[in-house]
Specification:
Strands 1, 2, 5, 6, 7, 8, 9 and 14 form an eight-stranded mixed beta sheet that branches. The protein is built from eleven helices and 14 strands. The protein has helices at 105-111, 128-139, 151-165, 186-200, 219-237, 243-250, 283-296, 298-320, 326-350, 355-365, 392-403, and strands at 2-14, 25-40, 59-67, 70-78, 89-94, 99-104, 170-176, 253-257, 260-264, 271-276, 371-374, 381-385, 408-413, 420-424. It is 37% helix and 24% strand. It has 433 residues and is of the alpha+beta class. Helix 3 (151-165) runs parallel beside helix 4 and helix 4 crosses helix 6.
């Protein structure tokens, strides 16, 4: 049996950087996903996991045999159908990057013996001492220097796997529609999808194995997924805000201020053109730059942050208000466009724009479309609102022009479902989609 899970990326609709200084921010899920497939290599009869779905572990075979002087029919439970096609290893296949890592279960037990039995219902922070041990396991894989930024993500995977499932041989395949390091929450989507898949086959949740297609966890189970994903994010980022993993887990939209998260429900369809400038940026340096500017110009920057706070609040109100007809939707979209333009202007005041971002802004403005950076800035991604009545021809022209500049363009719906999972009872093909 194989479990598959997926989790969406995220965008910041308003409030990036200013949120660090007490303003409100609004984030939303996007219909671009990271996919995980999980398959255990073998299952022992004594394994507690057999209680999850025992009928899948056996084939009932009827044979005819002489019993004394009589011919009788016997029903036999045949365990030969259990898949034992892999050795005693934990494998992680990052399919998009053509990278595959594996560890023997014996080696993981040696290094992480103090982790003990799985404790899937109790999200736990990885201690610095354990993190060093996990890092040693990762270093054994000889990750290419150009891909060394992946090491923290691989470490997060090992921690989540051993805590939730223990020491079991398995293969995990990862694919993603999210560009790495572009501010779209790729690491959070990874942690959420991994947690979702692992918990689906744990004692902490009770999924419906017979249901076809993608399923959504219940509220309490989503909370558990979110808490485990945050533990993974801590390994990758140190002190994450929790916004990215929350949006990826619960979907839709979230309003965030001073550590408090409020889930929002959108009452209007939103579609965005997400332009990846492919320009890398140093988030810590950009955040520090805003703080330094605030120290130099405290009164002016306070006004900037207050303005951003007002924009975020108005934006969340517009999104949640009813839109009974096309005219109402168009009016709301026009207001959102103005708010996006104002927010972008304030981000420029903070000093976090970039030449590549300005190129996207100029290009989309030619088609009378509103855009703003999303995330840290300094490169990364830019959002462009695509109004409901905008023709597909115009969208194609905009994309063509942006791609001619070397940018990557992705069209996505906004505010969809969060973490989802499904089961392949046939054993699957190890494809994470």
């Amino acid at each position: 049996m194989e479990v598959r899970a997926r989790a969406p990326g995220k965008i910041i609709l308003a409030g990036e950087h200013a949120v660090v200084h007490g303003s409100t921010a609004v984030a939303a899920s996007i219909n671009l996903y990271t996919y995980i497939s999980l398959r255990f290599h073998s299952i022992s009869v004594s394994d507690e996991s057999t209680n999850l779905f025992p009928l899948l572990l056996f084939r009932i075979v009827m044979i005819r045999k002489m019993w004394g002087r009589k011919m009788v029919d016997l029903l036999i439970l045949d365990r030969s159908v259990i898949r034992r096609d892999d050795d005693d290893t934990l494998k992680l296949h990052l399919k998009d990057l053509s990278l595959e890592y594996s560890w023997s279960i014996r080696r993981i037990k040696e290094v992480l013996q103090e982790v003990g039995c799985p404790f899937s219902s109790t999200p736990t922070t990885c201690t610095p001492e354990l993190l060093k041990l996990i890092a040693a396991l990762v270093e054994e894989q000889n990750i290419p220097e150009a891909k060394f930024g992946l090491a923290s993500g691989v470490s997060a995977f090992i921690w989540l796997f051993t805590c939730i499932q223990g020491f079991k041989p398995a293969t995990v395949v990862v694919t993603s529609e999210l560009p790495l390091g572009s501010g779209l929450g790729s690491s959070a989507a990874f942690c959420v999808s991994v947690s979702s898949a692992l918990l689906a086959l744990s004692d902490s949740v009770t999924p419906d194995f017979s249901k076809q297609g993608w399923s959504v966890y219940g509220e309490n189970e989503l909370e558990l997924v979110n808490k485990w994903a945050l533990e993974g994010e801590k390994i990758i980022h140190g002190k994450p805000s929790g916004i990215d993993n929350s949006v990826s887990t619960f979907g839709n939209m979230i309003k965030f201020k001073s550590g408090s998260l409020t889930r929002l429900s959108s009452n209007m369809p939103l579609r965005m053109l997400v332009t990846n400038t492919k320009v890398g940026r140093n988030t810590k340096a950009l955040v520090a730059g805003v703080s330094e500017r605030t120290l130099r110009h405290p009164d002016a920057m306070k006004s900037v942050f207050n303005a951003v706070d007002s924009i975020s609040k108005e934006l969340s109100t517009i999104i949640q208000s009813p839109a009974p007809d096309e005219l109402s939707i168009t009016e709301k979209e026009e207001k959102l466009e103005e708010l996006m333009e104002m927010n972008q202007g304030l981000l420029q005041c903070m000093g976090v724009s970039h030449a590549s971002i300005e190129t996207v802004l100029r290009t989309t403005l030619k088609y009378k479309l509103a855009s703003k950076l999303t995330g840290a800035g300094g490169g990364g991604c830019v959002l462009t609102l695509l109004p409901t009545l905008l023709s597909g021809t115009v969208v194609d022209k905009v994309i063509s022009e942006l791609e001619s500049c070397g940018f990557q363009c992705l069209v996505s719906g906004i505010g969809g479902n969060g973490a989802e999972f499904c089961f392949d009872l046939s054993g699957g093909s190890n494809e994470a989609q």
